[in-house]
Amino acid sequence: MQKSTHILIVGGGTAGWLSAAFLAKTLLTSDNNSIKISLIESPEIGIIGVGEGSFPSIRGTLAAIGISEARFIRECNATFKQGIQFCDWVHTPTEPASTTKNHYFHPFSQPSQRAGSPELLPYWLHGLAGKDRAFADAVTMQKYLADCGRAPKRSSDKDFLGPMNYAYHFDAARFATLLAEHARSLGVHHLLGNVDAVELAESGAIASIHSKEHGKLNADLYIDCTGFRARLIGEALGSSFHSVSDTLFVDRALAIQVPYPQADSPIPSYTISTAQEAGWIWDIGLQQRRGIGYVYSSRHSDAAQAEQVLRRYVGRSMDHLQARSLQLELGYRPIQWIHNCVAIGLSGGFLEPLESSGIGLIETAAYLVSYLFPYNGEFAPVAKTFNHLMSQRYERIVDFIKLHYCLSQRTDTAFWRDNTAAESIPASLRDKLNMWQGRPPSRLDFITDLEMYPPSSWQYVLYGMEFATQLPTNLIRKDELAAAQEAFQNIATMREFAAKDLPDHRQLIDFYCAQA
Ligand code: FAD
């Protein structure tokens, strides 16, 4: 018989409410009331409130929990995200960042591959697409369409579907509010209270938690979503934190919200990430404002220098706006599930905002808790599987993020020079780069279930960063040359039609916002 289980989530940020909604949707059914889900959040401690960029997996999550695309866009001030434009990451800027030379694009759409036609990467490396055509530009229409200000889908396309792959930019505080409302409608009990004590049983498991407002609270499974505080998994259970600061150097963020010059200013449908002397700046266009932040290394810049860099980017006319400062500790807990407590969100780990892994990791963790759920009360084997899958995923994300830094040819500051030092590059990444000098990355280099980023993301960043692969001659087949050439030509032709077919980005946002 199924054991009755009370799941108690502590924390009401994106991690807490996304987990609550996902678990409620997947575990609570009208004919099974053996599972109860509650969420307690502090009325005093706010949520982190940053985290405005997402990964395409978010569409599947929103669909799974039952929030429509129009509601999400309307209520979260959301816009579409087709990828990331990286400026000044490869070379030291000598000219304004608007020149195409110092840009590359990481699109979310996979390289185009029609049935029966060859994989295009070897042929691009062979020079068949044209000497100056960047990889991302040659193998998919997405960069061109995003540059033209087009949205990734039409208003007639179904929810969460479109010709181009996409994610969103959104207001993090509004997202938490929407998720909270939705989770409550799915049957999650909501409590306001500050957890001030955690009582442990002899076994080391959590026996109860305590708050002044509600006294003692008992549950079978506790989900720690208390953010960087890690009140349960860290403070109470002492799960150790594995710092990755020797590999990823940024440890501070300075964030600012900037209004558009006009209500109808165009909104880029991609994050702009511009490398700076000691880190990089994110620039995210929401409906009514931009979210901008400088993520930097305090070992390579002091706070005053960082503020100058951010204000130079934002422009003097915005000198009156306040910037918010945040301290970051990059790393993760290799053990995120101990006995009857599992960490989701920042309490489990954080690997900097580049490539938006934070919310993606929350989605994965909530998915795993739901699908590995210990219905029979046997937590230990589930914990073991969860810890293995999550720590492997974190390790691979560290490699992927470091890839952006360690291939840079910038030598202008200590930050960039230190980032290419061999000892700062994990051995697992060095091995991959060694292999890829002699052949391009293959699907077999990646174990899909452990990766957040698909092989194409690695390829876009690798070749965007001007990585050199010595192409083995056997990868170019004479009988496929014509088909590959035709495919490159086809992409160049079809994108003109697609640019006419797809709506302007802001127009599509306005369409969704007008829906009741
Ligand atoms: P929080 O938002 O901090 O929520 C913690 C919750 O716990 C709050 O409700 C608080 O009240 C509650 N709480 C704490 N202590 C107690 C207690 N004792 N009792 C009761 N309740 C308690 N991710 C992305 O995917 N994309 C991005 O672009 C991105 N950018 C980022 C930029 C920066 C600078 C930072 C720092 C993070 C970024 N992230 C990003 C990560 C993302 O913000 C987080 O993963 C996400 O917001 C989840 O946060 P959380 O819910 O774990 O924590």
From TrEMBL:
It comes from the Bacteria. PANTHER family: FAD-BINDING PROTEIN, FLAVIN-DEPENDENT TRYPTOPHAN HALOGENASE. This is Tryptophan 7-halogenase. It comes from Undibacterium amnicola. The lineage of its organism: Bacteria, Pseudomonadati, Pseudomonadota, Betaproteobacteria, Burkholderiales.
